[in-house]
């Protein structure tokens, strides 16, 4: 459905086979400094690149066969080709879900503990799904255009990496704001994907400094700079509620057919950063009302547990605040 409707004030021509939308726009006034920095990537006319729908990310077998086959081929041949947007999914080439069952010899409990993993997403992290969902919703609403806007991705790691990969594949100039103490691999990966980096003081728990820099950039050129803040954008929530949540529902049914479990998930456990992933628990609680949603926080930064604030180096979680998209009251344990 995302491909069919033309948002108001948006003139589009739709080519369903390539899932590409064309739109012409004129660059509006901006600072001379920003014009110079982005001259190589911005133009008066650019083509919007649109990838999969939420349903296609949940069930990639519903992608048009020639598109799906090309995406799988390019995953190995050219990981930076935009067709790889169609590889944003919890499922492999055989349409089977990526998961592992932890042996009871390790867990020492009778309940089956199942881990879904995201190493085979285009960037090696499921955060690329949140980055894509936020951006594509804004494209379809006419809020961003690669011929006009510079995207800013505030992050402490994988969301920014996902933003660099997604944004540049979708022809946007992408700037990632990242704390300077994050791992060297983070910065190298962003630059390899074509993004630019602005470093802020501190490490994982220094999110306020990222916000401050975002606010500064937006104020410097409000007509062109667009902040895609994972902590408040519900595209992040929707990706995990619909795609991750329903993936878990279907995995439970599959395991039950194999004699593992009873087709029901007792609890969903997720450590919160932006609190996007834990949105899957909201979907699971709709499916099973007695389902439990369990969060994790660093001992050094127990914000929800007892309003604690502290520094730590567990990259990806524990950012000293409860985010706008986190349905905190739906949690059962921490």
Can you give me a brief rundown of this structure?
By secondary structure, the protein is α/β, with parallel strands linked by helices.
Task: Write up what this structure looks like.
It holds the Pfam family PALP. One of its GO terms (biological process) is alpha-amino acid metabolic process. Residues 122-305 form the Tryptophan synthase beta chain-like PALP domain. This is Tryptophan synthase beta chain-like PALP domain-containing protein. With 334 residues, this protein is an alpha/beta fold. The chain has a domain at 94-122 and 233-330: Rossmann fold (3-Layer(aba) Sandwich), CATH 3.40.50. The protein has helices spanning 32-37, 54-58, 65-77, 104-107, 127-140, 158-169, 184-192, 207-220, 234-257, 279-287, 303-306, and strands at residues 13-15, 20-24, 45-49, 99-102, 113-116, 150-154, 173-179, 196-200, 225-227, 267-271, 292-296. A 4-stranded parallel sheet has the order 8-7-6-9, sandwiched between helices. Helix 5 (127-140) packs across helix 6 (158-169), helix 6 runs parallel beside helix 7 (184-192) and helix 9 (234-257) packs across helix 10. The longest helix is centred in the last third of the chain and has 24 residues, at 234-257. It is globular and about 55 Å long. The two termini are 37 Å apart.
């Amino acid at each position: 459905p995302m491909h069919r409707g033309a948002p108001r004030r948006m003139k589009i021509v739709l080519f369903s086979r390539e899932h590409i939308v064309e739109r012409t726009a004129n660059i509006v006034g901006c600072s001379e400094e920003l014009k110079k920095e982005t001259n190589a990537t911005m133009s008066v006319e650019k083509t919007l690149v649109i990838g999969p729908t939420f349903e296609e990310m949940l069930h990639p077998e519903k992608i048009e066969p020639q598109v799906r086959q090309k995406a799988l081929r390019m995953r190995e041949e050219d990981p930076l080709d935009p067709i790889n947007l169609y590889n944003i999914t919890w499922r492999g080439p055989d349409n089977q879900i990526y998961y592992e069952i932890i042996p009871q010899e390790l867990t020492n409990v009778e309940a089956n503990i199942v881990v879904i993993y995201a190493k085979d997403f285009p960037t090696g992290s499921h955060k690329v799904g949140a980055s894509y969902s936020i951006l594509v919703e804004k494209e379809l609403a006419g809020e961003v255009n690669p011929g006009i806007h510079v995207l800013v991705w505030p992050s402490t790691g994988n969301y920014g990496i996902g933003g660099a990969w997604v944004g540049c594949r979708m022809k946007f100039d992408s700037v990632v704001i990242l704390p300077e103490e994050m791992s060297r691999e983070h910065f190298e990966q962003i630059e390899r994907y074509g993004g630019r980096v602005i470093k802020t003081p501190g490490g994982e728990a220094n999110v306020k400094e990222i916000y401050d820099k975002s606010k500064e950039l937006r104020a410097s050129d409000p007509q062109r700079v667009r902040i895609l803040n994972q902590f408040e954008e519900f595209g992040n929530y929707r990706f995990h509620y619909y795609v991750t949540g329903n993936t878990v529902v279907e995995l439970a049914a599959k395991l039950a057919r194999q004699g593992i479990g009873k087709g029901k998930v007792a609890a969903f456990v997720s450590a919160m950063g932006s609190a996007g992933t834990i949105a899957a628990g909201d979907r699971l609680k709709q499916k099973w009302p007695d389902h439990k949603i369990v969060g994790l926080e660093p001992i050094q930064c127990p914000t929800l547990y007892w309003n604690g604030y502290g520094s730590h180096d567990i990259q990806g979680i524990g950012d000293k605040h409860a985010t706008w998209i986190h349905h905190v009251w739906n949690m059962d344990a921490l």
